[in-house]
Write a structure and sequence with these properties.
Elements lengths: L2 E5 L2 E4 L4 E8 L7 E7 L6 E7 L5 E3 L7 E6 L4 E6 L8 E7 L19 E2 L3 E6 L1
Parallel strand pairs: 2-11
Antiparallel strand pairs: 1-3, 3-8, 4-5, 4-9, 5-6, 7-8, 9-10, 9-11
């Protein structure tokens, strides 16, 4: 059974930094994509950053490119989202998600939530000015 457990959310002042962690377990192969989405009330869940475990490629939404960085510790099977220069509009619940198999990412990731099969419980990130 695939499980994703997030940690690291919290309250931070604008221009500060936070690092989110997602401990993954239960995968039987390395051919999947794992990453981070975020959601605010009344809006669709938005793709933020993705990591293709099969080839190590990373993908970012335009709204976070240059400020956020996704990485993976293979030994710990943990994915991280380093968030720098945080803005008040980054405030959201952040979810870790993983696909059930290979994904071929050929377009913007913002609207890709429907392609992911497994989700963590979410962690709140609040950025105040």
């Amino acid at each position: 059974e695939v499980q994703l457990v997030e940690s690291g959310g919290g309250l931070v002042q604008a221009e500060g930094s936070l690092r989110l962690s997602c401990a993954a377990s239960g995968f039987t192969s390395d051919d999947y994509v794992i990453g981070w989405f975020r959601q605010v009330p009344g809006k669709e869940r938005e793709g933020v950053a993705l990591f293709n475990v099969a080839d190590g490629k990373t993908y970012y939404s335009d709204s976070v490119k240059g400020r956020f960085a996704i990485s993976r510790d293979t030994a710990k099977n943990t994915v991280y989202l380093q968030m720098n220069s945080l803005k008040p509009w980054d405030t959201a619940v952040y979810y870790c998600a993983a696909s059930g198999g290979p994904l071929y990412i050929v377009a913007a990731i913002d609207q890709s939530a429907m392609l992911f099969d497994y989700w963590g419980q979410g962690t709140q990130v609040t950025v105040f000015s």
